[in-house]
Amino acid sequence: MGIEVPMIVVTLFWAAIGGLGPFLVPRNTDRGLVRTMLVLTAVCCYMFWLVAYLCQLNPLFGPRMDAKVLIAMQREWS
After folding, report:
1. Transmembrane stretches, by residue range (predicted)?
2. d(C-alpha 49, C-alpha 40), whole Å
3. What's the DSSP call for residue 78?
4. What is the rounded distance in angstroms from the CA atom of residue 2 to the CA atom of residue 13?
5. What is the pTM of this model?
6. I need a surface site. Which of 7, 40, 53, 76 has the fewest CB within 10 A?
7. What is the pLDDT of residue 39?
């Protein structure tokens, strides 16, 4: 399973929450606030997931060591 399937599924899920959710809110005095909360929740959760997912695709490299340090480690630890 490549990167496309999770990206499409999660994007569609949060797009449905942020796009369709506000239209399902019943009429009351706080309707605008609830709509705003739904959209902001969908955007924030999606962005958090996207950053966490993309960071796992390209992890940070470990520390870079000098050749002298590597030789010393090999000599001392083996």
Report:
1. 7-25, 37-55
2. 14
3. -
4. 18
5. 0.70
6. 76
7. 96
pLDDT of amino acid 17: 94
Interatomic CA distance for residues 75 and 78, integer angstroms? 6
Q: What's residue 1's pLDDT?
A: 63
For tokens 């796009």, what's the residue?
19
Contact 41, 22 (CB under 8 A): no
Contact by Cβ (8 Å): 14, 46:
yes
Residue 14 CB neighbours (<10 A) = 20
Structural tokens at position 28: 């009351």
What's residue 48's pLDDT?
Answer: 97
What six digits make up the tokens of 44? 């924030």
* Residue type (1 letter), 27: R
Mean pLDDT, contiguous 10-residue spans, the chain (78 residues) = 87 95 92 95 96 85 85 90
Count helices and strands (H / E) in the chain.
Answer: 3, 0
